[in-house]
Amino acid sequence: MRARPALLIVGLAALAATPLLASLFDQPFYIDLLRRVMIFAIAALSLNLILGYGGMVSFGHAAYLGVGGYAVAILAQQGIHNGFVQLAVAVGGSASLALVIGAVSIRTSGVYFIMITLAFTQMLYFLGISLDAYGGDDGMRLAARSDFGGMIDLNDSTVFYYVVLAVMVAFLYAIHRIVNSRFGMVIRAAKSNEARTRAIGFSPYPYRLAAFVIAGAMCGVAGMLFVNHTAYLTPDFMHWTRSGEILFMVILGGIGTTVGPVLGAFVLLVLEDLLSGWTEHWQIILGPFLIVVVLFARRGLAGLLSGREPHD
Amino acid sequence: MNAILFVEQTLNGLQFGVTLFLMAAGLTLVLGIMNMVNLAHGSMYMVGAYLAVAATQWTGSYVLGIALALVGTLVVGVVTELVALRTLYERDHLDQVLATFGLILFFNELVAIVWGRVALFSDVPQSLSGQVELLADLRYPVYRLTIIVVGLLVALLLWYVVTRTRLGMLIRAGASNRTMVAALGVNIRLLYTIVFGFGAALAGLAGIMAGPIYAVQPGMGELILIQVFVVIVIGGIGSIRGALAGALVVGMVDTMGRAFLKPLLGAVISPTAAEAAGPALASMLIYLLMAVVLALRPEGLFPARSH
Fold first, then answer.
1. Is there a domain that residue A261 lies in?
2. pLDDT tens across B114-125, in order?
3. Which residue in B has a C-alpha nearest to residue A290's C-alpha?
4. Backbone angles phi, psi at B78, to 5 degrees
5. Residues B72, A264 contacting (CB under 8 angstroms)
6. Which of A14, A22, A277, B176 is 20 to 30 A from B20 in CA distance terms?
7. What is the domain extent for residue B42?
8. Containing domain of residue A144, as a range?
9. Is residue B304 part of a domain?
């Protein structure tokens, strides 16, 4: 369950040192890249909560990324730049959406669950495309980055970087606490044996739904950060391939591990960046890579690093 | 909204429905028999469309081009099954979703390398171009009528194969209890490969016929793929009958929604609001339909599997 603490500390220290090194060697590009990595790591972390610990294969996690993004961009266009208000709307919006989607889809399981979460996200994607007032198909520029009242200036690339890092670490810790709480035990128990969980007196449904809503809200925060990062909003935030990418980050890093999603996001996005710098047709390499990972590295990178069998 | 327009849109819905059916038939069998979620099914649709364009240009004959493209898609399907998908049958759905997602990236890029990213437009052959007067004032493209006829013929053929032949018996048996079929000495792996290959060829056929109507471009398979998943979830996984019913329902609802939702809404709410809401609602309609069907009948309209 736990990756080696030393590794975690080294990793976080490296992330914390990156802006200093990048400015030292005059390579601001890496701040940008790693910020993007960490934003997706947050999204992947939230998916891991329901996928890795709850066994819910949501193929529509990009929906909450989109809600977070649209909440900020629409408010900004209306002239509301206050980051706290935007955060409240982004979290509230994505949590309510997760409540609706979860309430319907958690009643199903297996392929049906995968398909219904995908279907809901498709609906939102098409809704995004038809919102002509907010960019429609082409998307729109973010009027201004979220304003946190002078204390934190997201227009400063380094400050923004540390904000994202802080959110990621906070979420890592929060998920660690959730998973090891009584609530988390029920979620994990329902994943490994639903019948026994019922037999000892727990109805999994409300617990699963609560986890689904928490994950949605967390991913909404990722969406808010992402739209601030790109400073541009498109319906592609919610494209189904985006959901697939987040799903893959979790698997690549190690499903149901604490830091796995962060590793997965890092490796996938850095690999994408390297490959796309090398050839325009990088997806022809990424595709088979994905297949090979699924076929042969079943426990993901975190599994390789810790060298222990996962026990669930 | 007048009667002529309504008939025309009905035919369009039917045409879209049979295209969906050709895709759904293979996908629902693969899902029903092998318990395999295959996202790469849309890639077979795309491969079929591209091969048809290429083979038609190469041979100069439409019939020969189509035949070559069908065989080609069949081969691509069988090779994909043998190389990549075979090992996935025992895995859970998550692994299958991801691995076939990888296949999609691969095929989209492969097609982009060979034919470029720009959309190709293939021509309708001379003999099928033009329009025919069905009713007074209703002229309808011959090509779309041909698609409807071919689709319905294939549905009939599939019905015959599934219900009247030994292969069909095995397919049905596999859909209801594959362990038992294997225990009775049937070479289930070979059966899987055959089903997968022909499923791919049917998807290829859908792509071949869709080519002249929609643009042939990388990624063309994905949009229809998701709609096809809606079809088989509505119809009931593993059921050909369900696939046909689901395809026709989804084809109709989608086409009718796009044609008539905006004017209908315009009659109720203000025209400007309808202008904005109509297209959005029309795109979302089939997903709403799926959510409703799943809420009322979680196994779909015609569930195949007997527990």
1. no
2. 888 888 877 777
3. B102
4. -65, -45
5. no
6. B176
7. 3-218
8. 20-239
9. no
Over residues A140-159, the mean pLDDT reads 82
Average pLDDT, integer, range A231-260: 88
> Is the pLDDT confidence value at A307 over 70?
no
ipTM greater than cut 0.85: no
Comparing B74-88, B147-161, B254-268, the range with the smallest average pLDDT is: B254-268
Residues of B in Cβ contact (< 8 Å) with A247: 94, 97-98, 101
For the segment A197-242, what is each residue's pLDDT rounded down to a tens digit?
889 888 889 999 999 999 999 999 999 999 999 889 888 889 888 9
Is A98's pLDDT higher than 90? yes
The helix (run of H) or strand (run of E) holding residue A141 is: strand A140-141
The reply to whether A134 touches chain B by the CB within 8 Å rule is no
Residue listed under structure tokens 């996938």:
A268
Q: Is residue A265 part of a domain?
A: no
| B101–A244 C-beta distance less than 8 A | yes
**Nearest partner of B290 among A122, A151, A131, judged by Cα:** A122
| Assigned domain for B142 exists | yes
Task: Write the CB contacts of A93 (distance below 8 Å, at least 6 apart in sequence).
Answer: A67, A68, A70, A71, A220
Segment B97-115 shows an average pLDDT of 89
Domain count, chain A: 1
DSSP codes, B60-113: S-HHHHHHHHHHHHHHHHHHHIIIIIGGGTTS-HHHHHHHHHHHHHHHHHHHHH
Instruction: Among A108, A283, A286, pick the best mutation site for testing chain B contact (most B Cβ within 10 A).
Output: A283
Q: Is the pLDDT of residue B14 over 60?
A: yes
- Give how far A7 is from chain B: nearest CA, Å: 27
Strand, helix or coil for residue B132: strand
Measure the CA–CA gap between A214 and B244, rounded to whole angstroms. Answer: 39
Alpha-carbon span A172 to A258, nearest angstrom: 7
Specify whether the CB–CB gap between B293 and B226 falls below 8 A: no
Determine, for residues B294 and A104 on separate chains, whether the beta-carbon distance falls below 8 Å: yes
Query: Which residues touch A103 (CB under 8 Å, ≥6 apart)?
Result: A209
Nearest to A260 by CA among A242, A241, A247: A247
Q: Does B116 touch chain A (CB under 8 A)?
A: no
Would residue A8 count as lying in a domain? no
Is pLDDT above 70 for B140? Answer: yes
**Distance, in angstroms, between B37 CA and closest chain A CA?**
7
The two structure tokens encoding residue A191: 């994943």
What integer best gives the mean pLDDT of chain B? 85
**Number of structural domains in chain B:** 1
Count Cα atoms within 13 angstroms, Cβ side, for B62: 12
Interchain pair A251, B98: CB under 8 A: yes
- B35 located within any domain: yes
pLDDT tens-digit series, residues B201-223? 999 999 988 888 888 888 888 88
**What residues of B are in contact with residue A114 (Cβ under 8 Å)?**
37, 93, 97
**Is B45 within the bounds of a domain?**
yes
Inter-chain CB proximity B110 and A284 less than 8 Å: yes
To the nearest 10°, report the CA torsion of A215, A216, A218, A224: 160
